[in-house]
Amino acid sequence: MRVVAQLRAPGGCPWDAEQTHASLVQYLIEESYELVEALESGTRDDIIEELGDVLYQVLFHADLAAHTPGEDFDIEVVAERMTAKMVGRHPHVFGEAVAHTADDVVAVWDDLKAVEKPGRTSVLDGIPQGMPALALADKVIGRAQKVGVLDKDAIETIPMQTEDELGGLLLAIVASAKARGLDAERALRSTLRDLQSEIREAETSARDQ
């Protein structure tokens, strides 16, 4: 925290002093992907380094906010808010609720989020649309199953047993799309927009009934 403050203070680093929340977004995304790579295939030292780089982004944004009129919060406020959220969302640990399985925990979590964010009217609210298409698909499919738009047991499955097999299948699909001049990322996003529209229509119909 002291290093970040010194870099951004008068007489520190001119580049750091010029940054804004918006200008730092690209670095947050880049560092996050580098951390994912380290977690999946890196060494212990790689993980430590990349966790530090992501942590630095959090510290940088907090210091920036501490010196921005109208924002006026620092890393202590961020940590306090995070701690309060985690305590509040784990009543089975810090309170009287009971959750014996991971599924029980998810159910408790969903109920608490509904109370915390009463302004949300759809299960899709809160899903960042800028996520990579595959990650977004995983989220949207989960929400579609919650509202009954997709039946988990009725979805036709493609025979596969391992992630290696899945990876080969996905690669073959992308390669086939590329050979035909098709954009796999854009195609999946387009299909997901249609699925999300179907989910919202189902929610509207349910509320009307």
Automatic annotation (TrEMBL):
Q: Which Pfam families match?
A: MazG (PF03819)
This protein's superkingdom? Bacteria
GO MF annotation list: hydrolase activity
- Give the residues annotated as coiled coil: none
Q: Which InterPro entries match?
A: MazG-like_dom (IPR004518), NTP-PPase_MazG-like_N (IPR048015), NTP_PyrPHydrolase_MazG (IPR011551)
Q: Does the keyword Glycosyltransferase apply?
A: no
For this UniProt record, the keywords arranged alphabetically read as follows:
Hydrolase
What are the NTP pyrophosphohydrolase MazG-like domain coordinates in residue numbering? 19-94
**Which NCBIfam families does UniProt cross-reference here?**
mazG (TIGR00444)
Q: What is this protein called?
A: Nucleoside triphosphate hydrolase
Query: Where does this protein come from, organism-wise?
Result: Agreia bicolorata
